[in-house]
Amino acid sequence: MGTVRFGNDHFAAITGYRDYAQGNLTICHVYYVKGLGHNMFSVGQLCDEDLEVAFRLNTCYVQNLEEDDFLTGSRDSNLYIISISEMAASSSGKSKKASLPPKLVPSTESKLELLHMDLCGPMRVASINGRKYILVIVDDYSRYTWVYFLRTKDEAPDMIIDFVTQVQRNLKAPILTIRTDNGTEFKNEKLQTFYAKLGIVHKISIARTPQQNGVVE
């Protein structure tokens, strides 16, 4: 199942994996490495899941994109220690579950039946003409993807309205459902009025559920 490489250039074999549950906290796809004396987190894997990892002098933080603390730890000599049992005990019933594999098979049967939308940014470096945000739109059925570059988040509603109007006319098919995250650029009165006029259902995806938002991510 592959190997793990350590800082001293030694390698160890991965012999299996399973979900690790402690109270209300579940971490999926935890590797088992025979002979390893500590349970270790891979910073690279955390970053691949759109989590941010920050190390301070005596503390480390793992946060989601909404800056909610997913994991926290303290420094012990040269190791940063995260106590899963303590975090589970203090979670107050809040369930934290790592993401499932992204959905590979479309759940729709025709084009434009369901569109996934997401907005990325601000990018650290703007484009030549000053655009720092990226609006991504994916058709669930065909996986056809449209990408638009914006200067500010405020441009998103007007861009979405223009896109919906144009794509329905060009493809001669109605948009039935639009799925986005909980961002304010997608949840506003202007868009809700527009959707209601056309009979489009706007659904909000649950955070960190790739079977809902994995397509556009």
From TrEMBL:
It comes from the Eukaryota. InterPro entries: Integrase_cat-core (IPR001584), Retrotran_Ty1/copia-like (IPR039537), RNaseH-like_sf (IPR012337), RNaseH_sf (IPR036397). Transmembrane segments: none annotated. Pfam families: rve. SUPFAM superfamilies: Ribonuclease H-like (SSF53098). Residues 102-217 form the Integrase catalytic domain. PROSITE patterns: INTEGRASE. This is Ribonuclease H-like domain-containing protein. The lineage of its organism: Eukaryota, Viridiplantae, Streptophyta, Embryophyta, Tracheophyta.
